[in-house]
Amino acid sequence: MRGLKVIFKKELADHFSSYRFLILFALIWMVSLVTTYMVGMSIKQELQGVAKPKFVFLMLFTAQGALFSFVQFVAFFGPLIGLILGFDMINREKNEGTLSRLLSQPIYRDAVINGKFLAGVATISIMMVSIVLVTTGLGLNLIGVVPGPEEIGRILVYLIVSIVYISFWLGVAILFSILFRSVTTSALASLAVWIFFSFFLTLGASIVAKSITPSAQPDNPEALIKQINLQRSISLLSPMVLYSEATAVIIDPTRRTTRSFVIMGPMEKFSQERFSGPLPMLQSTLIVMPYIICLLAITVICFAISYLVFMRQEIRSI
To answer: What predicted TM-score, i.e. pTM, was given to this entire model?
Structure first.
C-alpha cells in the first residue's frame, strides 16, 4: 500500500508538471469555452422575452455550436486525453532505465502499474471536473438560469460516464506502452485503435449491413428494419457509440430510447402523445445502464490485460 501511494503521488506530480499536460489541458479548456459561449449566446437570443423551458441549462451540453456540441466534442476528442497520458507511461521508463531501478526498491511490481493507472484516472477526473465546472459557470452567466437538482444530478452522472470512457482509452494506451518498446510505435498503435473504433467501424457497419440486406428499400419495411438493426448491432462494438448513446439519453431528458429509428403502432403513438414529457433521471439512467456497464467492463478488462502482461514481462536495465 505504501509503494502504491508513492507511485501515485510521483505520477500525479509528473502529469501536472509536464508541458504536454498543460498544453493539452489548455487546448481542451479553450475549445470547451468557445463552444459553450457560442451555444450560450444562441440560447440567450432564442429565449429572449420568452419563458424559459424546463431543463434549458442542459442545452449547454447538447446544443450544437459552430461544429459540434460539448457532448460530441468529448466523445470524439476525449479519448486523446487518455491516449496522450498513457502511450509512453511504461516504455519511456524502460528506455531511460528508471523502471528497473524503481523495481529494485522495496516496491512491488503491481504497485507500479496500479499507481500509474490510478494517477492517470485521477488526472482525467480533475481535468473533466474542472472543464465541466468552468462550462457550468459560463453558462450561468450567459443564460441566467440556475440548474435544478435533477439537472445537477444528470451532469454528475454524465461526468462519471465520461471519466470511465476516457479511462478506457488510458488503459489502451498503457497496454501498448507495455507491449511495445518504442514510444513511437505505441503512440501510432493507440491512435490506430482510436481511429478504427471511432470512425472506420461505424462506416464499416453501414457497408456490411447494406451488403447483407441488399433488398432493404422504403417499400420493404421488414428488410429495412433488419438492415438498421444489423448496422446498430455492429456499431455498438465501438466504445464511442456506447458512450455517445448513453450520454445522449442521460443529458437529454426528452429522449426515451437510445434508438434513432423506432417503429410504433397506433396505440404506441397515442400513448406517447398523451404521456409525453421528460423522463426522471433514474429512468434515463436505467435505460442506458447496459451501455454504462459495458463501458466499465471493457475498461476493467483492458486494464486487467495490461496488468497481466506487465506482471509477466521481463524488465531489464539497458
So the answer is: 0.88
